[in-house]
User: Fold this.
Amino acid sequence: MKKTISGLVWLIAIVGFVVGFYGLYQRITTGHIHTDYGSYIPWGLWVAAYIYFIGLSAGSFLLSTLVYVVRVEKLEKIGKLALFTAFGCLIAALLSIWMDLGHMGRVYRVVLHGNLRSMMTWMGILYSSYFLVILVELWFAMRVDLIKKAREGSGICSILSFGSTDTSPKSIQRDRKVLKVLGTIGVPLAIAFHGGVGALFGVVGARTYWHSGLTPIAFLVGALASGGALLTAIVYVWGPDRDREQFREMMKYLGKVVLALVLIDFLLEIAEYFVGMYPGIPDEAEPIKAVLFGKYWYVFWIVHVFFGVFVPSVLLFKNAVSQKVKNGAAAIAFAGLLIAVTFMAVRLNIVIPAQVSPEIEGLQYAFTGPGLEYHYMPTMMEWLVTIWVSSLGALLFLIGYTLLPIVNEEDREVA
Amino acid sequence: MAIIDMSPGEVRQRMMEDLRRALKRPMEKRRWAMVIDLQKCVGCTACTTACVAENHLPPGVVYRPVIEKEIGRYPNVRKNFLPRPCMQCENPPCVKVCPASATWKRPDGIVEIDYEKCIGCRYCINACPYSARTFDKGYYYSDGTPYIPEYEKKPAFEYGKVWPRNNREDSPVGNARKCTYCVHRLDKGMLPACVTTCLGDATYFGDANDPESLVAELLGSPRVMRLKEGFGTKPATTYLV
Assistant:
């Protein structure tokens, strides 16, 4: 079963990579002319995909700190898996936002010539630091296993062990200390950068829908919920599998954590929408109305509320919280998958609706041209690029999983 | 002489004199301001077109649209018009958010974009409460026809530099763009293109710091209104209602 799922994911990722490549080709050769975002709706699918992936990354990273900082024993064996998931998602996120830039070659300016009053500059600085922390942390988490695999003849592990050969208990102890320090640095860093992405939107006074103190908090909770959910699904398929009872306990634990996070996230959403709608101030109420009752109402009600909150909550409650079901690991993993995948709807509903009302009434009729419109539907090329980016992230994960000791050999037993 | 007694020719003459006087003062002493009299605007959109021509604006990029509002029901209908150039805010939200230090407010109040530095993230476009910035995606008017004529590749002269449009990669393609108050013309002692083409003499321009100037006089009017003042942006573009 798990082998089949793994094979299926390989297949989807390869097909997505190949098909999506056409979108990438179009993006590189024709720039932005085949996109639907423009002057009045400047941010589209790629920005939504970026906050989606960066949320998944931050979420799984923060869960990895449960292992390396808080030392939650139940999760001990999935620390590296959580870190590597965070890494794959980070790459997908950064690629997605890079594709979105008008001048991709100038991206270095954000860090080298940044403006410290801009939240986006801070993102550049924090992502660079996060990228380093995650790489170094992964290396220390895998160091001993890399050396072991290198001794067994793995070329890539030999290169990646960077000449380190010490597998003494003392060195392992040192690794643990380093991991604890890095993880401890990582916690505020992950909170800062993902809360920061929320703030990037939250500080835009001109977009009332984003301009709320709740935005950074909702981003963080959403990251934990979606990242945790993704990790739960991943653990089921690729996670350590040896001790069956322990594995079931771990899945239940993850299921409970994810259920709580999803419900808190939903609560924040209700608060945001209710407070925004109540006074009926158009600037704030119009985008919410567009989400709830607009042309794309089903993105919220069916994709998000039904498949992203209701169904997974029922599944998680039955299989992770209630004691009746003995082996609900598969159902918990499926609920995690549903939450993780449908969370893209939440991200789209953050980015797009804020931009659909004209800043000045009548502006939409004042001058016409491509990009001077207030409706947005991603073009085929935009979808293809996002498919390519997602597939690349997935392939990175799958290849890494195959070549690197992300899950210890003795724990890999596949059903 | 009160403005109501002046002929259109005299209004323009006075603005030219104001401009020449202002240019003799150092840049940090000037504060360029535009005043638009909504009672005089006839909604001809000559300013919009003149701006497109002056700055060689491609499809999808517009600096000065004229927003129309229809009031009443047929046959008792009135229309009013609101030209919307850049507000050249004293506290520009677009400048604050730029991650690449590619946009700033000059000492004379004009918010400038350095096309060579802009990374095209469009954060500023989202941050502007007036939608005054647009994104140059790289279109030509002749897209979909067999070839791109030479006149489409002719350069724009924004910020006093030469910006040819030879391809879809080089700036200003891929950048945020906005009204510059025609700073390249101002530097040469000419009024902005929208001011010189305004049929109804509804747009005035000059140095608000010069008490002798026409705009300084108009800014004292009780009819003064600025867009979205609640945002605290303090626009230099002012309306008379």
